[in-house]
Design brief:
The protein has 225 residues and is an alpha/beta fold. It has eight helices and nine strands. α1 links the parallel β1 and β2.
Length: 225
């Protein structure tokens, strides 16, 4: 069984879902430190002027883990996001089909960042046809703090004999730790596809919303290459 692990991100890009699709089980690594100005509370959509962020405002203290970070409910971010999505994708071929479900996502009551992040991943993965069992790392007992041992512990807790790492894992993973415990490590091999997109020249690394509104039911086939 192949396990993949990744921090819960908001409206992630295609590579995130390729990783999920390539595994048998997926784990949201919600008990590691929150990193500001990355992709944990924001992602990008394409506009006629280039791209823009969809950002979930948060209140946090340095050192807080992702599952401790609260959403800043004083800001009307939901209305702003929906307006931006509608304005920039209303002419996309599959907008009318999927936008009502995106609206329902924004209608949810979220206190913590991880809640809306996981909800966004579950919505988008379901809409393109990826259905994998998923867990939160914080719900798995006995995980060690060392980043290699933590991943190994997750694999062993789930009965996985293979760990699927992102390509960047080559830079920090101690493969002997896994080999000694009988867990194989493989690295994600993902080449970003191009597809029909609004607003001229193709722009990669957008939220999965982009391919969903533009390509609909063909999205997963395109994602898989």
């Amino acid at each position: 069984m192949i396990a993949a692990v990744h921090q819960p991100q908001f409206m992630p890009w295609l590579g995130y879902f390729h990783k999920m699709d390539s595994a048998d089980v997926f784990v949201y690594l919600d008990n590691v430190q929150f990193k500001k100005n990355e992709y944990q509370n924001r992602n990008r959509i394409k506009t006629s002027q280039g791209w823009q962020w969809l950002t979930v405002p948060v209140n946090y203290s340095f050192g807080e883990r992702i599952n401790q970070v609260r959403i800043d409910s004083s800001k009307d971010w939901k209305k702003k996001h929906l307006k931006s999505i509608e304005m920039n994708y209303s002419k996309a071929p599959y907008f009318d089909e999927y936008f009502p479900m995106v609206e329902r996502l924004y209608g949810g009551d979220y206190e913590y960042l991880y809640e809306v992040n996981i909800a966004s991943v579950e919505l988008l993965s379901g809409l393109i046809g990826i259905k994998k069992p998923a867990y939160r790392a914080s719900e798995i007992n006995g995980l060690r703090d060392d980043q290699n041992l933590r991943l190994l512990d997750i694999c062993k807790a789930l009965g996985a004999d293979t760990y699927l790492s992102g390509g960047a894992g080559r830079d920090y993973m101690d493969l002997t730790v896994f080999k000694d415990e009988g867990v194989d490590v493989v690295f994600q091999d993902f080449t970003h596809p191009s597809y029909a997109q609004l607003y001229g020249e193709f722009t990669p690394f957008m939220s999965l919303l982009d391919i969903l509104f533009n390509c609909g039911e063909k999205s997963l086939t395109i994602l898989r290459g």
